[in-house]
Write a structure and sequence with these properties.
The chain has about 220 residues and is of the alpha/beta class. The protein contains five helices and nine strands. The N and C termini lie far apart (about 55 Å). A seven-stranded mixed barrel has the order 3-7-4-6-5-9-8. Strands 1-2 form a two-stranded antiparallel sheet. The chain has two domains: about 80 residues, no CATH class; about 120 residues, Beta Barrel (Barwin-like endoglucanases). The protein is about 30% helix and about 25% strand. Strand 8 and strand 9 form a beta hairpin.
């Protein structure tokens, strides 16, 4: 109980539900939701009102800790992208077939077009990696078994990922839900880590790739 009392005055923040987008610099992200700004202002006020100054020894320890962790941070930021995205599907069989044909046109080794499961990624990911059409991704959720999909292009909007229905059903992902997503560029893995449900501020739902979903 005493330990809990000691923690009550600490400033803390949970930014796991905030919406982030990559910038032109692949090592940086930007917050486009309001939570980060509110926490940042609290942090600034706390620093200004704090009467305790950091001494030289403490400052050296902080700098040493930051430098020692920097290589790990840079390694992960170069290979893994994290963001919050809405998961959607394709409006029709014809729409899905359009992207299957697009993939098969680029990859002549593919024999059965029905084996292709198109994936459309947000346009902002272009600055992170140049995926090839037909590139196979392993799709993971919190279930122990994964599924798969094939890259078909980038969407115009930056907040949605389109994935084939067969793939969604195999890993129990629901179209229309928002997910915390990790894209492992090196290993070709897309992980849907947490689901936030549907957006309560979105009064009109327009599913499928017609909602700002033309692929570039």
């Amino acid at each position: 109980m005493k330990f809990r009392d000691e923690l009550t005055d600490l400033l803390h923040a949970d930014l796991s539900n905030e919406v982030v987008l990559p910038t032109d610099d692949s090592k940086k992200i930007k917050f486009i939701s309001d939570g980060f700004d509110a926490v940042f202002l609290k942090l600034v006020r706390a620093i200004r009102n704090n009467s305790k100054a950091i001494n030289k020894t403490e400052k050296e320890e902080i700098i040493k800790s930051i430098k020692s962790s920097q290589p790990i941070i840079e390694k992960n930021s170069n290979t893994i992208h994290r963001g919050n995205y809405e998961l959607i599907g394709f409006n029709s069989t014809e729409s899905r077939l359009k992207y299957q044909k697009l993939i098969s046109k680029e990859d002549k080794t593919i024999e059965e077009i029905e084996e292709l499961r198109p994936i459309l990624l947000p346009a902002s990911l272009k600055s992170i990696a140049k995926f090839k059409k037909g590139q196979r991704f392993e799709i993971q959720s919190d279930l122990p078994f994964p599924s798969y999909g094939h890259f078909a292009g980038y969407r115009i909007d930056d907040l949605k990922i389109a994935i084939d229905k067969k793939t969604r059903e195999e890993v129990f992902l629901r179209a229309g839900n928002f997910y915390q997503v990790e894209i492992d560029i090196k290993e070709n893995i897309i992980r849907f880590v947490n689901s936030f449900g549907t957006d309560p501020n979105d009064k009109i739902k327009s599913g499928g790739e017609k909602n700002y979903a033309l692929a570039a």
